[in-house]
Amino acid sequence: MRTVCLIVAVVLLMGMAGCGVGNKGYGDLSTQLPTHASVNIQVGEALQNQIVDFGNGVYYFPLVGSDFGNALATFRAAHPDLGQEAMAGDNALGGRGNAVGYFVTFRYK
Questions:
Q1: Would the pTM of this model clear 0.85, i.e. be above it?
Q2: E strand or H helix at 85, and its extent?
Q3: Which of 16, 70, 80, 89 has the CB geometry, 3.0–4.6 Å to 44, for a possible disulfide?
Q4: What is the pLDDT of residues 24-36, one digit of tens each?
């Protein structure tokens, strides 16, 4: 439990560190990014039962690669009232690029 609290604290601190930075004049990036062709809502729905809700807007997705992308896209489609706040990889294996999942925080829009 202590480890989970530490991880949640780190994720929240990372989210707060980005507050007020803005998008540096790039405009609305969500309208500039193309939709990725591999998003599969059916696969995403099948993965929804693996998402862990820690409460207070903190979720853990124990998925990587396209499984994570599909699950996140499906989650966001199912929760249009939530805006993504911050995301951090769970590098339980150590080192960069060894994520086994992602902590994602959301807030109401």
A1: no
A2: strand 82-89
A3: 70
A4: 444 444 444 444 4
- Pick from 93, 36, 44: which is nearest to 73 by CA? 44
Q: What H or E segment, with its residue span, contains residue 43?
A: helix 41-47
| Site of tokens 């959301």 | 106
Comparing C-alpha atoms, which of 44, 50, 87, 86 is closest to residue 66? 44
CA neighbor of 104 nearest in space, from 12, 17, 20: 12
Query: Is 82 within 8 Å of 108 (Cβ atoms)?
Result: yes
**In 3D, which of 20, 9, 4, 18 has the Cα closest to residue 53?**
4
